[in-house]
Amino acid sequence: MGLSSPLVLTGATADIRVLIVVTLIYVLVIGYLGFYGYKTTRTSTDYLLAGRNIHPYVMALSYGATFISTSAIVGFGGVAAQLGMGLLWLTVLNIFVGIFVAFVLLGKRTRRMGHNLDAHTFPEFLGRRYRSRFIQVFAAGIIFLLMPLYAAAVLRGGAEFLRATFQIDLAVATFAFALIVATYVVAGGLRGVMFTDALQGSIMFAGMLLLLTITYSKVGGVLEGHRALTALADQVPEGLAGIGMRGWTSMPAFGSPIWLSLVTTLVLGVGIGVLAQPQLAVRFMTVRSGRELNRAVLVGGVFIIVMTGVAFLVGALSNVYFMQQEGALAVAAAGGNVDQVIPRYINSAMPAWFVVLFMLTLLSAAMSTISSQFHAMGSAIGRDIYEEGVRRGHVTGGASILVTRVGIIVAFVITLALALWLPAGIIAAATVVFFGTCAASFLPMFIGGLFCRGVTRLGAQAGMVTGFMVAILWLAFAHASSAKRLMICQALFGRDTLAPFPWSAMDPLVLALPMSALVTIVVSLATRRMEDTHLDRCMAGVGVRPTAS
Amino acid sequence: MLGIPDPAIWMALVLCLASTVLCVIYGALNWNRDDDSVCESPDRERAWEKEEERLEEEL
């Protein structure tokens, strides 16, 4: 979810000079960590995989902070203010699927197999697993094509926030923000990115934990707050009640448009889509052993509940606060703008010192996400497309790092251009487009490659292309909210969507992912298995627990 | 439960906490397990590093 309007988080509540000084100190520390990453980077393994020896705390926070952008806190927090606590099911999936399943079931195998294959990027991992240059280049092409939109959404959100906070021009804010991030990514590589992510994740953790504590104290405690929110059920606006909303502590009516949107797009689309995010999956290969992933599970689980869990609880509970203080629901108090609910709540309910901390929290959330996006796009352009697709692997050593650095600069320019010139509607659809397409294209062959020796090269290729095509077509012509924003269906057929309800409310994941999986299985069954020597090399030590502890 | 009447909501809240507890317990119980770094061929790893350094120097 992208942010379509400025976040106002300043003015009466916090002194602008304090904000500027704190931000400058923050940028200096970030710059130092980027420089430290630069000084400790010598090989392409350092630059692309942080030397494969990252500390589990840093890995877990980097994974979490990359996953959680400003939109996850402010945008989804606003959605919780509008739709209620049903969004907590997304947090359940974020923790159980996004951390536990991802780290324990997929992460350990990815790390081991990635090491066996000497893979440095997610597309390279898939390409080497299936011995297919096509898979590597196609996967990198999807990243190159769609991630700039997602990155532009995050960049726009961060820049809008800077513009409103420091009262500066939007173009200047966008350029400055992107330049600061790109500089430390180009210099420090993944080491720089992960060190800064860890600091940013720590700031986010402190900010969100305090936000929850203060919020519950404002609404009279946990039980009192929940009861007061339940009592607001008769205040549900007519427009929302008509499409299934039943209150902020109740799930929407089963099968209603709100239920379908909540369950398929927000909960399943984002909750499962996280498993096939290239910028996240690559992090499994940055640690030395499975032990580090075990430790990271502990840190990651606690981190994520304090991120999305708090954002959704506070978003919903802000209705109680605004009703007590202003006699209005949160969205109404924010002028009808869902994206303004959390900033308006922070300004109104929180002390001035917290506004400064929350400003750093949001800045950290945006920077940690976009830095990883720049790195993933840069490695896709440089390592996967140029080195593997154009030069056929004939680039090595220092030249390889240089190629990725140039790739990151190209990604920076494209993202910047999109953030400045693309219509807000397309930007807002970007996250759903990227998550849905990645899950449908990569997830079946990724899981198949980790667990099953029977998935063939052709099966993986066919499944990936099918998933990509179905997801893109579904987003452009069927999924109503995305199709309306992308405007392709309107231009060709004069309608927002070609699909009737309930199909128009369903996330692409619901159709594209099963189709991609089915094609992968059917084609694999019909084609020749890959050579045993290659499969033995891939699977060596994969899924085997070492006896020594 | 927890001041929330709809089981579908309080269950989500409970499962959030339960999932977090699961992560904490799993991480704590396996804190020192699965150290498979020793199983990987250190010679191969050193060879990669040397190769990369050699190519870097050449360039």
Describe this structure in words.
The complex is a heterodimer of chains A (549) and B (59). Chain A has helices at residues 16-39, 44-49, 56-67, 70-83, 88-116, 122-129, 133-166, 170-218, 222-230, 238-241, 257-273, 278-281, 290-326, 330-333, 341-349, 352-390, 397-421, 424-451, 457-477, 480-486, 488-493, 508-526, 532-539. Chain A is mainly alpha-helical and 549 residues long. The longest helix of chain A is centred in the middle third of the chain and has 49 residues, at 170-218. Chain A starts with 15 loop residues before the first helix and ends in a 10-residue tail after the last helix. The model of chain A is unreliable at 1-6 (pLDDT under 50). Chain B is mainly alpha-helical and 59 residues long. The N and C termini of chain B lie far apart (67 Å). The model of chain B has no long low-confidence stretch (mean pLDDT 81).
- Main β-sheet description of chain A: none
Distance between the termini of chain A: 43 Å
Largest sheet of chain B: none
Question: What is the CA–CA distance across the termini of chain B?
Answer: 67 Å
Relative strand content of chain B: under 5%
What is the share of helical residues of chain A? over 70%
Percent range of helical residues of chain B:
55-70%
Number of helices of chain A: 23
- What's the overall average pLDDT of chain A, rounded? 90
Q: Ranges of chain A with pLDDT <50 over ≥5 residues?
A: 1-6
SS-based structural class of chain A?
mainly alpha
Mean pLDDT of chain B comes to 81
Helix/strand order of chain B, N-terminal first:
HH
**Most extensive interface:** A-B, 58 and 40 residues
CA-atom Rg of chain B in angstroms: 24 Å
What is the fourth-level CATH superfamily of chain A? Sodium/glucose cotransporter
Let me know the number of strands of chain A.
0
